[in-house]
């Protein structure tokens, strides 16, 4: 079966006065229909740039310099801006972190949800659009949609605004949704509601979902497969259960160490990974993680590790597989 989204060796660069930054570096992954795929990593690891590259939304002078984004039999990186605009919204919808900035403050909610439906010819008349908007608003759990459809964004809470954004994303019957930190700006209890809504819709409609998050707890709850990014590269990719059961990259092990565990001993200290991600204008030689890695050896400083299958279906960009131990970070920072 052909994947809904098949990303191959995607590479995106941004020229800056300090040098050219490779913000997405040879990224490959696939997403199937009905699947939720997670993209995790620290701030600045290239998650949003990956999403923007897929959508053709890299702000110039940055641009996709290599690789392919295959969707529906075409390579999206080769499409004209106009053709790409038709794909956005209709085939592939997005949900961004900050719902309030995604909505136009001077336009009524109903109009905003209807906009792309009319643009993409999903509905023909305003009356048809209105009926469908009310339907969508009900579907995403907005009470009294018949009256609220004429309200403005400021009349909605943050959580309700994000529901509006989700309704707009669903309006053109997309096959795939790219959600970049869709709940980060919300209160914790609301986060949970929005995430559950998104997953229920994804499941019911059989959509592919790419979920960008820096929260491994969210990944554990929602994603079937996950890619861990570091400094623009995927460093580990595997089914979610296996990532938590047996991580195969020191960076992932470090991230997992930072996640509080309900079943862990009460006095166990959480140990953040010491150090900071590299400056992309001057990335370290060899493995990009080696300056922060407790296992770094000479070979890690000289040779560039490739993403390799270390066990069936489990990819890791680390050559020190033999040295990985469960207490790696406890020993390292003790
Ligand atoms: N316009 C720009 N010019 C130069 N560098 C940029 C620009 N936009 C982003 N970057 C750099 O690209 C890298 C990847 O950024 P990106 O926004 O994809 O990170 P992220 O993983 O989404 O982080 P966060 O969790 O904070 O959202 C970062 O190092 C960032 O500094
Ligand atoms: Mg981001």
Topology:
Blueprint: E1 5-16, E2 19-31, E3 36-40, H1 47-55, E4 63-71, E5 74-75, H2 81-90, E6 92-95, H3 99-102, H4 109-119, H5 126-139, H6 145-148, H7 158-170, E7 176-180, H8 188-205, E8 208-213, H9 216-222, E9 225-230, E10 233-239, H10 240-245, H11 250-257, H12 298-302, E11 308-311, E12 314-316, H13 328-333
Parallel strand pairs: 3-8, 3-9, 6-7, 7-8
Antiparallel strand pairs: 1-2, 1-4, 4-5, 9-10, 10-12, 11-12
Helix pairs in contact: 4-5, 4-7, 5-7, 7-8
The structure holds adenosine-5'-triphosphate (ATP) and magnesium ion.
Magnesium ion (MG) is lined by residues 47-48, 180.
Describe the structure using short key phrases.
single chain; 334 residues; 8-stranded mixed β-sheet; 12 strands; binds adenosine-5'-triphosphate; binds magnesium ion
- Please tally the β strands and state the result: 12
Helix tally equals 13
Please state the average pLDDT score. Answer: 92
In this entry the ligands are: adenosine-5'-triphosphate, magnesium ion
| Gyration radius over CA | 21 Å
Q: Strand arrangement, largest sheet?
A: 6-7-8-3-9-10-12-11
Major β-sheet profile: 8 strands, mixed
Residue share in helices? 25-40%
Describe the structure.
The protein has 334 residues and is of the alpha/beta class. The protein has 13 helices and 12 strands. The chain has an 8-stranded mixed beta sheet with strand order 6-7-8-3-9-10-12-11, with helices on both faces. Strand 1 and strand 2 form a beta hairpin. Helix 4 packs across helix 5 (126-139), helix 5 crosses helix 7 and helix 7 (158-170) packs parallel to helix 8. The longest helix has 18 residues, at 188-205. It starts with a strand and ends with a helix. The mean pLDDT is 92. Bound molecules: adenosine-5'-triphosphate and magnesium ion.
